[in-house]
Design a protein that fits this description.
With about 325 residues, the protein is of the alpha/beta class. Helix content is about 50%, strand content about 15%. The protein has 17 helices and eight strands. It starts with a helix and ends with a helix. It binds hypoxanthine and zinc ion. Zinc ion binds next to strand 1. It comes from Lithohypha guttulata. It is found in: Cytoplasm; Nucleus.
Length: about 325
């Protein structure tokens, strides 16, 4: 229908996609064969269920499947192919700019060298720019359920790769792993010139305190998810005033939370917060950029107008970390 066409044609930017979350059961199967490694059980199950999807119902069960499936990623070529698979789909959906999360510790902790991961991703970034015209940069996430020392060592590993890594983030299991645990790592990252963001996942216990720490103690440039900031008018005022962006993910929310949080997302947007719509782990939640925007736009009671859809996408370009020169070209 005309709404679907409108959204498909809208120029888009994606600021919250995990590259490892772009691993489809099909690609996992190809890589397992190519590398002669056993197909993880999670992928086997995903390929045999009628819906051909992975099985999980909350953040912890999602993460268990996510980490087990990525063991098929071994060589630089695998990381390259994973990123190209996603970037090709993004290009087909008129995504012009991507800032892609990746989780190096999920690979280095099982013996894959850091430069293997980043060189594979980097060659895809360059190829996408050259062949598809998609501008792309990488955001390196620390796994918050691992130690601050491991995060610091990973930051040191990244220093030779500043040409393609624009910033750092924080993801994985949030329970008991507050932003404060990584204060020193994020301070060093700032001094090294990296932009900084953190997941404050919707519906995680204590998340509003985590949002406060991320904003006030760490001084992040963006918040990933962070939707439950609506509970605290003072923090909402702070992100408005400092023009700190929120990267929200409706379909992801609908899978791992109680709800897709459309009401909260639109409330924040209409209050002038820099809210954006993103796809998080599209291969797992089975929704790319267009599907996520459509999920929000289709919800009748939210009464989202086309002008607001344009505004949401404009936010994404505005809060992106591309240089202001290229950002002006997009806007
Ligand atoms: N939340 C936390 N950690 C993650 C996610 C997520 O949605 N995706 C990949 N790592
Ligand atoms: Zn995420």
């Amino acid at each position: 229908d005309s709404l679907t066409t409108f959204i498909a044609h809208l120029p888009k930017a994606e600021l919250h996609v995990h590259l490892e979350g772009c691993l489809t059961p099909q690609l996992a199967q190809t890589l397992a064969q190519r590398n002669n490694v056993p197909l993880p059980n999670s992928v086997k199950q995903a390929s045999t269920t009628s819906s051909s999807g992975f099985a999980f119902h909350d953040l912890s069960s999602f993460l268990a499947v996510y980490y087990s499936a990525m063991t098929v990623l071994q060589t630089a070529a695998d990381f390259h192919d994973l990123a190209m698979d996603y970037l090709t789909k993004a290009h087909e959906q008129n995504v012009l700019h991507c800032e892609l999360f990746f989780d190096p510790q999920a690979h280095t902790s099982r013996g894959v060298p850091f430069p293997t991961v980043v060189s594979g991703y980097r060659s895809a970034v360059l190829q996408a720019q050259r062949e598809l015209g998609v501008s792309t940069s990488l955001i390196m996430c620390f796994l918050r359920d691992m130690s601050a020392e491991f995060a610091m060592a990973t930051l040191m590993d990244a220093l030779p790769f500043k040409d393609c890594i624009i910033g750092v983030g924080l993801d994985s299991d949030e329970r008991g792993n507050p932003p404060r645990k990584f204060a020193e790592v994020f301070e060093r990252a700032r001094k090294e010139g990296f932009m900084r963001t953190m997941h404050c996942d919707v519906d995680q216990v204590g998340s509003i305190e985590h949002i406060r720490q991320a904003l006030e103690e760490i001084g992040v440039d963006r918040l990933d998810h962070g939707t439950n900031i609506v509970e605290d008018a003072r923090l909402v005022e702070m992100v408005r005033e400092k023009r700190i962006g929120l990267t929200c993910c409706p379909i992801s929310n609908s899978v791992v939370c109680s709800d897709f949080k459309g009401k909260e997302i639109m409330q924040l947007f209409r209050q002038g917060a820099r809210v954006t719509i993103n796809s998080d782990d599209p291969a797992y939640f089975r929704g790319y950029a267009n599907e996520n925007v459509l999920r929000l736009a289709r919800e009748e009671e939210l009464k989202v107008t086309r002008k607001e859809l344009v505004g949401l996408m404009k936010n994404a370009f505005e809060i992106s970390w591309i240089s202001s020169w290229s950002r002006d070209a997009f806007l």
